[in-house]
Amino acid sequence: MSEQAGYSPSFKRPADIMRMRRKRARSETGSFSGSPAAASPGQGASSPASVRPFSPGPLFNCQNRSGGGVKRRNPFANIENTFSPSKKLIIYNEEEGHVEAKDKKDSGQLSTKRSEERPFTAKLTQAENQERQASSKKCLDFSEDDSLFDEKEEDLKSPLLKSPPAISPASIAPPVCTEYPSDWSLKTRLLFTSPLSLSWAEKPKAQEEALGLVQHCRAHFSTVPHSVQDPKTCPELRCSFQQSLVYWQHPTLPWLSLFPRINAERSFTGKSAPWSSDTALQQSLMSEWSVSLSSLYSSLKAKLCPYFYVCSYQFTVLFKAVGLSGSSSITALISPTTRGLREAMKADGIEFSLPLVEEQRKSRDFDDELDCGNEKEQDCCGDDEDEDRAEEKEPKDNDDEDMSWLKEMGVQDKIKKPDIAIQIRKEGQAVSLDHKPESVVLVEGPDTFTLINFLINCKSLVASAGSQAGLPPTLLAPVAFRGAAVQSLKARSVNVKSQVGTGYQNVSSLEITGPILPSALHSITSLLRPAQKGNFSATLYTHAPTAVMNIHQSNAQSTSSSVDLSSCGLPLASVHKLQTPSTLGKTALSHINMNNYSYTWKN
């Protein structure tokens, strides 16, 4: 290969290449100055006049040339770069000697351009045409003139020769998910990360913070632009973010963190608790707490408050207004519960249900019906072996097994079976649900008012000993109520470096701590969408006892959107979000990711 004329495997400087081109042009001009017949056919195959080094197109003899022009050689060509897969899309027609196209005008233009830039190209002889047509009518012309490949893909004859993006339908693109499922669990911490800076959410101006607080109290919501160029200079965005951090709480003690309350003894240990030994102070705290709880329920009944939480040291209660989660009445969810609490509720005449236990029972009954149907089919077939197997699978009565020793003694008729065994078995099943997600209790309709009275008069609602002794439960709501104090979530922005492949990438993070309500989570993510150009991710830390509050309610209806909740103090987008029933079951969201304005999530 190194012996061929003009071959240069090593790198040449541009000055050397131009010098070689001028020298080759002079030599080729001298060779063509004579008659074309002077060259014999045997010499034509090896001479530069008949061989085009590193030109992958068809070879043309000197006798077939219509003019004296010589195709220039590409000085940068070598064996590796002479093959171009993209140039296989051009079809060379040997009969007409030009590139075929779908449009005749384009075909004529391409043919004219080919003849102008390659004047030495001539039509093949009739004998050569017949030989090539026998093997293949068309072949691919690999030309070093890139102007031939400026043709659009839509001008090609066959759609199979088009590139995949040109023929792929638009429906192949993944669907855009603009919302994530509604989550009714309480969050203790949110951690947002984004490739764009999140520092705009930290350290608001005094005017922006005041305006956000006033807008929250007056239930005024400013319109945020769909695309925010610079979040730091957008007052509507910054004020709305401060507005979404506001919540209402009772009681409020500056030196104590009153959320969460379950398994939070460490946060109360060593803190001052003057009410623990003062009975009069405990009664005063409970009296104010009862007034606040009654005010919240009245606002909920009047559709002025969408929901609120009662956080005790043993359980958490979620009250929801009519229309939320598709319900047709006021509902209350209690989790976790104990057998003693459920018995006390029954004693006060509160009717409730255990949704998860009922679902398990229905699924078990459905499986039993399927088994019975299979047994009937087997009986119709008359298969004796299957009947024996079915009898073996039938569970035996535990009571008969326990009393079998009486039959051996022959005194089974004289001794009655003790009912206490059955009672113990039932109580064991009830106690096994305690402190588990399956113990969640659902109260609906007018029984929720009875539940309010039960909570006010229940002595076990307040701890009698320990670090939380004498302290009433924490009330949390997104709107104002009597005796409540306005609070704000804490937001902190930090720039960190995240490892991406072999390098590191600057990532901005935003941490929000406090009792994060469902409406606050939706408002914050709605503001981050335009501010971060539709690219951010969030890690959600859920208060474990409240994760089960996403269960599907049996009375959920699709007509919940007809309920007017425009006066509940929340944006309409958040109201529509909370009206849709949750699809998370007894789990909660743990991760939310938005990429190119499309949501994905994990639970």
State the total count of DSSP E strands. Answer: 16
- As a whole number of angstroms, the C-alpha radius of gyration is 41 Å
Total number of helices: 18
Report the uncertain regions.
Answer: 35-51, 57-68, 86-125, 136-173, 384-397
General form? elongated
What class would the helix/strand composition place it in? alpha+beta
Q: Which band does the percent of strand residues land in?
A: 5-15%
Spatially, the strands of the biggest sheet line up as 9-8-7-6-10-5-11
Helix content: 25-40%
Task: State the distance separating the first and last CA atoms.
Answer: 65 Å
Largest sheet: 7 strands, antiparallel
Keywords:
7-stranded antiparallel sheet; 603 residues; 15% strand; elongated; 16 strands; alpha+beta; TATA-Binding Protein
How would you portray this structure in words?
Helices cover 34% and strands 15% of the residues. It has 18 helices and 16 strands. The protein has helices at 14-32, 41-44, 104-117, 126-135, 164-167, 206-218, 235-244, 265-268, 279-301, 339-347, 355-381, 384-393, 398-402, 404-409, 419-431, 447-457, 518-531, 572-579; strands at residues 92-93, 98-99, 138-139, 187-194, 246-250, 307-311, 316-320, 331-335, 441-444, 474-477, 485-488, 490-500, 503-516, 535-542, 591-595, 598-602. The strands form 3 sheets. Strands 9-8-7-6-10-5-11 form a 7-stranded antiparallel β-sheet. The protein has a 6-stranded antiparallel β-sheet with strand order 12-13-4-14-15-16, with helices on one face. Strand 6 and strand 7 form a beta hairpin. Helix 6 (206-218) packs across helix 7 (235-244), helix 7 packs antiparallel against helix 17 (518-531) and helix 17 (518-531) packs across helix 18 (572-579). Residues 35-51, 57-68, 86-125, 136-173 and 384-397 have low confidence and may be disordered.
